[in-house]
Amino acid sequence: MALKAARFANLFLTGALAGNEFGSWIGLHPALHELPQQAHVRSEQAVTRRYGKIMPIFMTGAIASFVPVLSLLSDRRSFSFLFGFAGMLCYATMLAITLTGNIPINRRTLELDPDTTSREEFLELRARWDRLHTARNGLNLTGFGLAILGVLASSQGNR
Q: I need a surface site. Which of 20, 39, 59, 137 has the fewest CB within 10 A?
């Protein structure tokens, strides 16, 4: 029963994080790019401040949710364990990219003056951030898929 509860928490957190990030990737940020320059800068700053408060907990929680699942699996060579471990590595890599790439860009974005920042500087920052966000989305979706495969591999072993 503990493994089922741990798996539920893991799938809920990783799925919610992957869905949130995917939605911002295909919906939110492309829509902000359509705004006039000053509104775009202000909007990105507002989103960055909000996400800056919730995402550290959300991302850390998603990664940490793999620990009880993996610790409750007795066979470290099972597909269930290997898929789960690989999924955790995807999310950990995503967090490393966030910490080393996206957060410095976020800090710079928050320092910008929307009235005086050149369009070129801002769009260059956004382009770098978007490339990193694309990589992070690939890792999130892959990690979530691997977590699902871990559950499916575990249920196949119980038959």
A: 39
